[in-house]
Amino acid sequence: MSEKKPIRVISWNVNGLRSVMQKQFSQSFESLDADILAIQETKLQAPQFVGPMKEFEGYQAFASHCTVKKGYSGVAAYTRMTPLQVRHGIGIPRYDDEGRILELAFDDFTVFNVYFPNGKMSPERLEYKLDFYRDFFDHAGRLKSEGRNLVIVGDFNTAHNEIDLKNPKANEKYSGFLRIERDWMDRIIADGFVDVFRHFHPDEVRYSWWSYRFNARAKNIGWRIDYAFVSRNMIEQNRIRKAFICDEIPGSDHCPVGIEIER
User: Are 12 and 38 in contact (CB under 8 A)?
Assistant: First the structure.
């Protein structure tokens, strides 16, 4: 009897789904061979999520769209596995109205696709970002305390440690690498969530985002701000097989990141 293939969960900030569709998204989609592909920053309204952007053979598609600003935020997921339940947000309008959270519940684990806010725009947006971390992980923590197996993937918009960006000293006073943001990453881990890539690759220098400026990607001047976290019980159960970063996949300023889960 052949061994069952693991479940591949992949996250990718596409920085505009309409844009990436013009950059061989269909070919990249096929090559990733994801069982669940979670994408962020679709920048679509609900009526625009149709046709080739939604219909991939063998997959069901779900999305949360921003309702307060056109061409902004938005997350979507394509899944070969039929979810038992799909939730759009966590019941807090100030986050849910920006289309930042999609929850897919399956038999023995739940996947959150999350586009965490960027805090660079203003002090108010930094406060919004920190509030979002608090309220989202309060919600996730309650589910974890019920014994749920959780997978949280997405663009966290924060590099955790110095290994996670090319120029840490030059960026320590900017949102994305502020101590107050990095403290939240510490807190998430202390509260029982595991950064899967760093769990398997504690010393490996890999990035998931590069500025479009200064030829940064070609020079590999990047940040690791896209993550797959799981509740620690999934590590203890030996459910997680591997973690990977697909930095060879073009089309966005981010690249896909993912994990494999034992069936």
Answer: yes
Q: How confident is the model at residue 1, as a pLDDT?
A: 46
For residue range 143-154, list pLDDT tens digits in order. Answer: 999 999 999 999
Q: Which domains does the chain have, with CATH numbers?
A: 7-261 (3.60.10.10)
Burial (CB count within 10 angstroms: exposed 0-12, middle 13-18, buried 19+), residue 176: buried
By annotation, the residues acting in catalysis are: 155
Residues whose CB falls within 8 Å of the CB of residue 43, separated by 6 or more in sequence, listed in order: 15, 16, 17, 18, 19, 71, 72, 73, 74
Q: Which residues lie closer than 8 Å to 196 by C-beta, 6 or more apart?
A: 227, 228, 229, 230, 240, 243, 259
Interatomic CA distance for residues 180 and 158, integer angstroms:
10
Helix and strand totals (H; E) in the chain: 9, 14
Give the Cα separation of 72 and 15 in Å (integer). Answer: 10
**Does 195 have pLDDT greater than 90?**
yes
**What are the beta bridge partners of residue 100?**
none
Question: Which residue type sits at 82?
Answer: T
Residue 61 above 50 pLDDT? yes
**Contact (Cβ atoms closer than 8 angstroms) between residue 209 and residue 13:** yes
pTM: 0.97
